[in-house]
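Q: Got a minute? One more chain.
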Amino acid sequence: MPPFSVIIKKNKRGNNLNHFEEQAGMSDNRLLTSKLTGYIEAMIAGGNFAEGERLPPLRRLADQFHLTLSTARRSLQELCERDILEFRHGSGTYVKPRRKLHNASYHISVVLFEKNFRSSYCSYAMQGFQCMAAEYGWQLHLSFHSYGQLKQNYDESVFQNRDALVFLGCYDTYDLSYLPKHLPCIGLEMHNSLNGQFSTVTLDPFDAAVIAAEHFRSLGIRHVKIISADTPVHQFRAGLFRQEWGKDHEVIDSQAFSECSLAADCGYLFVSGTHHEAYAQEYFRKHKKYLAENPAVLSIDGKSLIAPDFQPANTIAIDWPAAGEAAAEECLRRLKSCGSNARRIYLAPKLYLYHKNGEEK
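A: Always. Here it is, folded:
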């Protein structure tokens, strides 16, 4: 049996892991409240809102998400009913302390890139992971390190006393060979398995390549410029698209890409949503319109659908909270089956196109 197998992950609730489709059937009120509830849950999961911490004033939250006070109040009430928040009369709304797991079955270290929810898809993935961890009775130990700083901040004594390590982000961009070999490791948005030590969870790059190629062909585009990145998962996506598209393409490093590269007869594929965002912000500052209004510009990963500060985008996306759930399920499998093989888990993506009414469809 090979040491590293490939799993195409499907959702418990349907076919593909896309909560955006499910949201399409919600009522208008539910959609409005979900903006704020999702934000608060991600802030708690990412460590920005600590247990017992008071939330910002209701009016500030309402203004931040362009909600009425009554809608914002309903959002907080929903989280109170779910035992996530608690209202203290005359004082405000607070993050409810979690039940202490004195006899937690497993202790899991979770490493995230940053605490900034407004630019981090990892906080959304952490929502899903945290929900599953609570169901399993795990004790989570969160730490925040940039990709390049993890090694210099590494504390062997801390990681040696854990049952598993989970990394949310492209940490395989740098050396990870120093990590303890006896622990199962899970890497969300990673490609390198480190010789079978890491199970990886990410968007299906094979499906993404096919979807992107079909989209460009539907526009009559014959030449595509691929804006690549130096991280393994993004390089792999770029390589698969090159194979799918054929010879008429050009690979451009994200650092070298400039507005002068835009041409009416070309397609543009950003294999990283973060790099697309940087370019889209600059484009908006110069032209006062969204880059997404040009359907020939496409990104992969769907960060624009969840991060409130991101520009809209034509994007190939997955459900990031469900990706966190998948990472937790894989972690449990490896904990329960000591010595079991690492796996690649690919989540089936879907294309979302921007429309001028401000919605991705």
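A: The chain has a mean pLDDT of 83.
Q: Perfect, thanks.
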